[in-house]
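Regression check, zinc ion case 449:
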Amino acid sequence: MTDEVLITGGALIDGTGSAPQPATDVLTRDDEIVAVGSDATTTASSDATRIDATGMTVMPGLVDAHVHCTFDDVISNDELFFHREPATAALVTGFNLIKLLRAGVTSALDPDTLFEMGPAVRDAVAAGVIDGPRLSVGVQALLTSVGGTAGRLIPDEGDVGYARVVNTPDEMVTWTRRHIKAGADWIKIHATGRIPNHAGELPVWTEDELRVVCDTAHDLDTPVSAHCRDAASTERAARAGVDLILHGSFMDEAGLEAIVDSGAALCPTFTFLANLADYGEAVGAGVGMQDIFRGEIDATGEMMRRAFDAGVPILCGSESGFALTPYGHWHAREMEVFVEVLGLTPLEAITCATANGGIAMRRPGELGLVAEGCVADLLVVDGDPAQDVTVLADRRNLHAVISRGRPVDLDRPWPERGPLPDEHVAGWAQSVLTREAAGLDGPVPGSGS
Ligand SMILES: [Zn+2]
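Current build output:
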């Protein structure tokens, strides 16, 4: 018994960046696109599921190349590292993944996961145990003892949450091999980290250390991604052989040159920064940080544009999994930022979110494209994303989502749930209850109030 889906009459965006083709039919059989154009209708069997896309757009499903599907829209690092436990985190991951599909994301790369659960989640989706997009996964992120974005919350050795601390070249080799043995599609390195007396992030791996991981992983047919939020780390990562550079913040001339030479891909992941800069106030986030984050986007955007012009593959990532980037809401926003800040055309931005995503899924040329022989992940969009890419951001414009050859049920209610015990950090108070705050005493001399 095969599953066939015949989509008729829609304008086709094929993911390559070519202009939309008017009224082009597409036929899928199981997880494969078997016909595009007039063949589709004549080849379709009589019991194929038929979708009339007249007046609408047919395009590849979105690939989100930077998500954290096990983080559960987390509010803070305290919560992420100290308020999660494995069984609940796994169940909640299953609850959240369907939101990606419902938003048109049919593939996603999750580079580091809580409690090493990435391969188990990927395999559960593939086997139909839980619903979700097809996944490419890492196990944990490799950090040096300096830590990453969570600074001193990271222990000097061992692991916590998504982080595995490796202090010597021997440990770097050992944990790269163990992650690959556990089923990692990608190895992830946190190449920058925060220290208390420095603004921004600093490189916390030497180029030689990065190379140890890359050489070990590449020997085992596994690519490497690295979180790089400063210029030096971006250059070092490219020179060391990192295949996918996440963020690439403040990339400089030397970094760009190294990336062009090495053939690495870039996933700038502006969405988290842009959400904080533009909408953070609405949820009480990042007060005073708006200008800093906007500055990081503008400084990095110019170099990303040059990378794009030099032929470097640019991927779209949303960093979904944080309170500022909840699942199912912001996966298309990176394309908007690419249009606004990098000056890409909507079609170029769509290629970043589809065909280029094939790199993240380790299936370039067969995923993120609408062509015979490619995987059967498709969207039918009520609107014209080639003119206005923002139509993809509103789920109500998704007429159909086809994932692995099957239509996703878009009519079910959006998943909602109640709070779980201790999942959020509970403060005793927002500020300190002095006698003055309680209104008992007047201003005390010398207290400044
Ligand atoms: Zn991330």
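Comparison notes: The two ends are 77 Å apart (CA to CA). The mean pLDDT is 96. No diff flagged against the previous build.
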